[in-house]
Structures are given as C-alpha cells and as structure tokens.
Amino acid sequence: MLDEFRTWLNKEKIATNQEVDEAFAKPEVRDDSAMQIRAEVLNGLFGQEARHRVLSEGDKQIQAAMGLFEKAADLFAKRESLAANPKIERADPSPKGRL
C-alpha cells in the first residue's frame, strides 16, 4: 500500500522517491500515512463512520479517554456500594459554637 502511495507521489510530482524514503524512515510518519490511507479507503467503501473508527484507533487522546470508562465504572460501583451502606463516623463532636 505504501509502495503504491510512493509511486503516486512520484508520478504526481509531489515528492521524489528520496523524499518519501526519508519521510517513511520515521516510524511515526510511516504509521500515520498507512492509517490515513486505510481510513480513506474504508471511507470510500463504507462511509464516514468507518473512516472515523480507523482515525480514532490512532488518536492518543481518544484512546486515553476510552481507558477512563473502566475507571469511571469502578468509581460508580464504589459510590453505589457506599450509598447502600452509609457509615459516617466522626472522630470529634460537631464544632458548633467553637471559634
């Protein structure tokens, strides 16, 4: 897929093979290019939702947010269990009137 992209870039005089090779030598450029191409191919075949799914797989912020859903569920479950068994203990009596 990237070889076909390299050929197209060269044919359209967008970049030389040397420029493409230098760019693709960087893993982040190569990976991002492959992801973008995959997203556009799936967009053409299946529509915008497929494109967004591919792009979200490579989005670090979205992936970090997705990882927080499990933590949120755990916190919610903990809250629910605390609400079911309220135990409020005070070490000192209420400080009303003491200032």
Quaternary state reads: single chain
Annotation, overall tally of beta strands? 0
Low-confidence stretches: none
How many domains is the backbone divided into?
1
Structure, briefly:
This protein is 74% helix and 0% strand.
Describe the overall structure.
The structure is a single chain. By secondary structure, the protein is an all-alpha fold. The protein has one domain (2-84). The protein is 74% helix and 0% strand. The chain is built from five helices and no strands. The longest helix is centred in the C-terminal third of the chain and has 25 residues, at 60-84. The chain is elongated and about 85 Å long.
Which helices and strands appear, and what pairs or packs with what?
Layout: H1 2-11, H2 17-24, H3 27-46, H4 48-57, H5 60-84
Helix pairs in contact: 3-4
List descriptors.
single chain; 99 residues; mainly alpha
